[in-house]
Design a protein that fits this description.
eight-stranded parallel barrel, Pectate Lyase C-like, elongated, 512 residues, 9 helices, eleven-stranded mixed sheet, TIM Barrel, 26 strands, alpha/beta
Length: 512
């Protein structure tokens, strides 16, 4: 980890300890000063002072990096300095005060509370915000309030081009110069009632707004409405067959191992999967059965020690309640707003600071973005990636295999000890698990809402063992692409696998 990441994690962990006593005694936590009051300002820390609980109060001296004060749950944070992008992102409640300038996308996707910037802000302030108030005493950059659906943004200075683009709710009040509104928005004069309402925020700060201020609201005539294409898998792995390795069948009494160890890059410890399936469910099924108690799940809340926690836009604030009780997290980039590497790293720092040091951290995204996904897990030194085989308009899961394989080989993923998991959208078969192993994926991620899940897991384990015996292998790590065959020419063409009955791969594949 880089130096800035190390000091960011340390700051967050130190703050967690200080907050316990501060909340009990209703104290203000001061950061950036020595014991004798001498100034020791922070500089560049990322993903810090996040998930602040209600009634907490923090004062920090210094200039911070990405995602500072994000995921606020009701605390009060004052930064005597400035900050980079996505400050106060995903805030649900509380107050964030920044005494100098802020970067791009301040208050991104916020759902409540107040953000007060005493300086200016860069582009996309309040993008996709749903509720709450952002007050900017200085100027705002381009596309302020882009895609917002609720809440109020007040800019006492001027704003850049295309304010309110794509908005469908809320309002933006501009006291300074204002260019034409962006697509989906329109401008009108401020009303006397609005001036009175805004004065409640401004008068305690010694500020006021003039009668010439403009208000940007959603346009009834030209609303920017669009609908995302459906992400799906039209065909699974059923047109790929398994063939023996050429060895003799295993004895009925030979020990077969279908377990998979999902471990961190920096250690030998990890999570053991009795069968190579990370079961995706909202919550763990209530059961004391043996297989369910041992099989890890990917859940949204209330994880066990062996489970992984999915982190997305809907639960990124509440997830802090569970970070100490899970085996790791999967940050779902599919459901989060577009972010650069520094912002993604800041979010990971924020979450990792609250987890056990040996916890697993992975990213998830679609197969059509697999090259960038694998690059990020290398650059950020993460433990692996979940690759969703679904694509816009529908895909064939077999077509994902060569793309994953080529990207993995080009970046030496296996040699670096990182795991690749493939996500399917239906209950997998025993053959699917073995095919995924042969294609280089450690596990399959797929949903299961079956009430008889214990029976399903037992049946899958016995079927996997039967296949292993027939294929002549003792553990699943022995399965390779040589054990896989395409059932027809079309499947061979999109997967790069040998066609059943052929000894050589088709020429379009680069090797196996």
């Amino acid at each position: 980890m880089r130096e800035v990441t190390d000091k960011s994690v340390k700051l967050n962990r130190d703050l967690e300890k200080m907050l316990v006593e501060a909340l009990e005694r209703d104290l203000l936590v001061r950061i950036g000063w020595g014991r004798n009051g001498d100034e020791k300002p922070k500089e560049g820390e990322i993903g810090v002072i996040t998930h602040l609980p209600k009634k907490s109060r923090v004062l920090l001296l210094g200039n911070l990096g990405e995602c500072c004060g994000a995921m606020n749950r009701g605390g009060n944070l004052t930064i005597q300095g400035g900050c980079s992008s996505m400050a106060g992102a995903f805030q649900e409640d509380g107050r964030l005060i920044i005494e100098k300038d802020a970067g791009d996308r301040i208050g991104s996707n916020m759902k409540g509370g107040v953000i007060n910037v005493q300086g200016s802000v860069s582009n996309f302030a309040g993008e996709s915000m749903k509720e709450g108030t952002i007050l900017v005493r200085g100027h705002a950059g381009e596309r302020v309030g882009a895609g917002m659906s609720g809440g109020t943004i007040i800019v006492l200075g001027s704003v850049g081009k295309e304010p309110g683009i794509g908005m469908n709710g809320g309002k933006i009040i501009v006291s300074g110069n204002c260019p034409p509104a962006g697509n989906g928005a329109e401008i009108r004069e401020i009303k006397s009632k609005e001036i009175s309402e805004i004065s409640e925020h401004l008068e305690p700060l010694g500020l006021s707004i003039n009668k010439d201020a403009l208000v940007i609201i959603p346009s009834e005539k030209d609303t920017a409405i669009f609908e995302y294409p459906e992400i799906s898998i039209m065909e699974g792995l059923e047109k790929i067959l398994l063939v023996p390795s050429g060895k003799n069948r295993q004895s009925l009494y030979e020990k077969l191992d279908c377990e998979t160890l999902l471990k961190t890059v920096e250690g030998d410890e990890g999570v053991v999967f009795p069968i190579p399936w990370l079961i995706e469910r909202d919550k763990i099924p209530i059961s004391d059965n043996e297989m369910v108690s041992k099989q890890p799940f990917l859940v949204r809340d209330s994880p066990r020690e062996i489970d992984l926690l999915i982190v997305d836009q809907e639960n990124i604030v509440q997830v802090s309640d569970y970070l100490t009780s899970c085996s790791g997290i999967v940050l779902n980039l599919e459901s989060l707003p577009k972010m650069n590497d520094a912002e993604i790293e800041a979010l990971i720092v924020s979450l990792r600071s609250k987890m056990n040091e040996k916890s697993i951290v992975m990213l998830r995204d679609r197969v059509d973005r697999v090259e960038n996904l694998l690059r990020m897990i290398i650059d950020l030194n993460l433990d692996g990636a979940i690759i969703n085989a679904a694509t816009p308009g529908g895909s064939r899961a077999a077509a994902a295999l060569p793309r994953i394989g080529l990207a993995s080989r080009a970046m030496n993923i296996k040699e670096q000890g990182k795991h690749l998991l493939i996500k399917l959208d239906e209950n997998p078969s025993a053959e699917d698990f073995i095919i995924a192993k042969g294609a280089g994926c450690s596990l399959i991620v797929a949903p299961n809402n079956d009430e008889k899940i214990e029976e399903n897991l037992l049946w899958l384990k016995s079927t996997i063992n039967g296949w292993m015996s027939d294929l002549g292998v003792q553990n699943l790590e022995e399965i390779t692409r040589r054990n896989l065959r395409a059932i027809d020419y079309d499947t061979a063409a999109i997967s790069g696998l040998r066609l059943i009955g052929y000894d050589r791969p088709l020429p379009m594949w680069l090797g196996n």
